[in-house]
Write a structure and sequence with these properties.
CATH topology of the largest domain: D-amino Acid Aminotransferase, Chain A, domain 1
Mean pLDDT: 95
Structural class: alpha+beta
Oligomer: single chain
Number of helices: 15
Number of domains: 3
CATH superfamily of the largest domain: ATP-grasp fold, B domain
Radius of gyration: 21 Å
Helix content: 25-40%
Length: about 450
């Protein structure tokens, strides 16, 4: 096992990885920008290294600085966390070339799944159905119009190398397609350095279903059930739950089999998530995330499996610590993403935390790096806390969610806690009657 791991990330996910390392007797190195010098993950790590100014481009995306920090501290391995360089194949290659272990899958798998066009083709080769769309990248708007006539409107224009909802536009008809194509391509070029886009049929009432898998590269693949991530705003997940209230046992088994069979055929190694759209009883592959997911805690709550611990074991060339027969998925879990945003306007709200009081009690977990006096910087993602609930049933979990949200106090900045309180009382949510477009409609009604 590793003696020292450098965590190439920040905030709650860096703290989450630090905790797993410490429970395994592994020392940690935190890297940080100048504005994060007093961050909780920096305070708790065994060592810390400043890697640049506030801009992520010059700090958390600064590969030479991160590798230098690993070298001067004598780290054995580097965990990329979530976002930033977590799905950067070049970074994975450079980590191994410089003599460190990359805690994640092979760069080949990162590269394959990071290109959405190639990922769709790989899924087809593995026998997984995909959303109807173009066979590859689309060269220009006129070509897009020709393809869209065959696929059928509405059409979703998507970045080939994208993620996180960027580089995506919907076109209701041929007139809007040209504008959508230009806008998606331009945003993709700025965000990902790759302006290629492809087309997908826009589904009107899909659920977003994903399956968490772990594979050790020795032939063992296990799953931790499926997650329903359909409550989204601008393609950004807001609340996730497991198991999905939309699936029956047969459908659940079918989507899990698609994911585990694919991971085995790929020879995948590490933690990964297969993501699908589900509509009218059919599942369509949309992408695979070759990293730790923000919403991994709900899978941990129902399975009892520490996903980060397994990542560390796999990277250290150890087998999975359990087989599928050892995993019992029990109860229901929900994760509320708490962002430093105004709950009505969704405008970012950086600033100093004047009061911080996290909820507690049975079945309540909070993953956050906040503390009283901490200043939330304006330079990074607005996620500041994850409220994770577990109950014996979905109803018990929702009641626990309501109670915990009432206790949760984050003062000094605006947060999306009020939004989650609204959701917890909405009949459609309580009944599990929602799709990926539902939250957008709910927000629009609230603003009207």
């Amino acid at each position: 096992m590793f003696e020292k791991v450098l965590i190439a990330n920040r905030g709650e996910i860096a703290l989450r990885i630090h905790r797993a390392c410490r429970e395994m007797g592994i020392r940690t190195v935190a890297v940080h920008s100048t504005v994060d010098a007093n961050a909780m993950h920096v305070r708790l790590a065994d060592e810390s290294v400043c890697i640049g100014p506030p801009s992520a481009r010059h700090s958390y995306l600064n590969i030479p600085a991160i590798l230098s920090a690993a070298a001067i501290t004598g780290a054995d391995a580097i965990h990329p966390g979530v976002g930033f360089l977590a799905e950067n194949a070049r970074f994975a290659d450079m980590v191994t070339e410089h003599g460190f272990v990359f805690i994640g899958p092979s760069s080949d798998h990162i590269r394959l799944m990071g290109d959405k066009v190639k990922a769709r083709q790989a899924a087809r080769d593995l026998g997984i159905p995909c959303v109807p769309g173009s066979d590859g990248a689309v060269g220009d708007a006129e070509h897009a119009r020709q393809l869209a006539d065959d696929i059928g409107y509405p059409i979703l224009v998507k970045a080939a190398g994208g993620g996180g909802g960027r580089g995506m536009r919907v076109a209701e008809g041929a007139i809007q397609l040209g504008e959508a194509f230009t806008a998606a391509s331009a945003e993709a070029r700025v965000s990902f350095g790759n302006g290629e886009v492809y087309l997908e049929k826009y589904l009107d009432q899909p659920r977003h279903i994903e399956v968490q898998i772990l594979a050790d590269g020795r032939g063992s693949v296990v799953h931790l059930g499926e997650r329903d991530c359909s409550l989204q705003r601008k393609h950004q997940k807001v609340l996730e739950e497991t198991p999905s209230p939309a699936l029956n046992a047969r459908e659940r088994a079918a989507v899990i089999k698609l994911a585990t069979d694919a991971a085995a055929q790929l020879g995948y190694r590490g933690a990964g998530t297969f993501e699908f759209l589900y509509q009218d009883g059919a599942f369509f592959f949309i992408e695979m995330n070759t990293r730790l997911q923000v919403e991994h805690p709900i899978s941990e709550m129902v399975s009892g499996v520490d996903v980060v611990r397994e990542q560390l074991r796999i990277a250290a060339d150890l087998p999975l610590s359990m087989g599928q027969a050892d995993i019992a998925l029990e109860g229901h879990a929900i994760e509320c993403r708490i962002n430093a945003e105004n709950a009505a306007s969704f405008q970012p709200s950086p600033g100093e935390i004047t009061t911080y009081l996290a909820p507690g009690g049975l079945g309540v977990r909070v993953d956050s790096a906040l503390y009283q006096g901490y200043v939330v910087p304006p330079h990074y993602d607005s996620l500041v806390a994850k409220l994770i609930l577990h109950g014996a049933s979905r109803n018990e979990c929702i009641m626990r969610m309501r109670r915990a949200l009432e206790e949760f106090v984050i003062a000094g900045i605006d947060t999306t806690i009020p939004l989650h309180q609204q959701l917890a009382g909405e009949p459609d949510f309580i009944d599990g009657n929602y799709d990926v477009h539902w939250l957008e409609r709910f927000v629009a009604r609230a603003r009207a």
